[in-house]
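Dear V.,

Thank you for sending over the compound details. I've combined the ligand you provided, zinc ion, with the protein sequence from our construct and run the structure prediction for the complex. I'm sharing the raw inputs here so there's no ambiguity about protonation or stereochemistry in the SMILES, which I know was a concern on your side last time.
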Amino acid sequence: MSAPVAPRQAPGFYRFELGEFEIVALLDGSHPFDAANLAVGAKPGEVAERLGRQYLASPVEGMINAFLVRTPTKLILIDVGAGDLYGRDGGLLETNLRAAGFDPAQVDEIYLTHLHRDHVGGLMRGGRVIFPHAIVRVSLEDASFWLDDANRAKVAAILGPMFDGAEQTLQPYIASGRFKPFDGDGPLTPGIRPVVAPGHTPGHRQYLVESQGQILLIWGDTVHVMPVQVPDPHIAIKYDTDPNAAVASRETALAEAASKGWWVAGAHISFPGIGHVRRVGPDSFEWIPVNYSLNRIAP
Ligand SMILES: [Zn+2]
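Below is the predicted structure of the protein with zinc ion bound, written out as structure tokens.
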């Protein structure tokens, strides 16, 4: 038999109901993450030991997830993946959005958690504007930081490309008047409000999505390496602009999500990146992934 060898998995989308909203996790790609060398504040051997408990080793494959929220009146996309900026490890968001039954032209608003390349890059592919009608929103702090070249000198060298990525992919949206940064944490649309969670970037935001009493915290890069940073939230990574603030934001989010039983959606947690967190110690948590359902489920 000479069956062809396929290079990819199934289409990457996963949908579920949150009250009267529909949430669709969309996979942009996956990317090896050098957790052992990028960790900040870990004890010697700790990263390898924690990964080993889940039969993983560094570099560990991390997802690039984005999340579509369909409210009764709008389609809102939270983060857009890496687009062309991670080579063949990313760029599947548009394909997976279409596979899930949506057209990128239907997206009304895009809320970015922050302006790193793997969250903003998907606004463009091959010089093409992917979301021709969407308003693009991000915190004012992130917009002013990453769109000002003078800040390059203030960050580690590995963050340099983030300035180029933000500038290149946002430029057409800025030029057409569709880039609208926001201040603070007031609701952006009924049922979705930003949560101030700085550290990974100066203006990193999570988004709290609520419908009919059901709550989902879309937490962006609050956690990069789930097997390491959920059991030990003190471990930061070299991509954090302010590691101490990132640790504090992570501890707050984990504690609140665990005590309130919220659904959580993470950008780099194994697809679909949706689950719950449970407290297992004074400052330690575990991740419980959503149970797969073939049919659209109301959790
Ligand atoms: Zn990221």
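A first observation: The CA atoms of residues 51 and 275 lie 19 Å apart.

Warm regards,
I. M.
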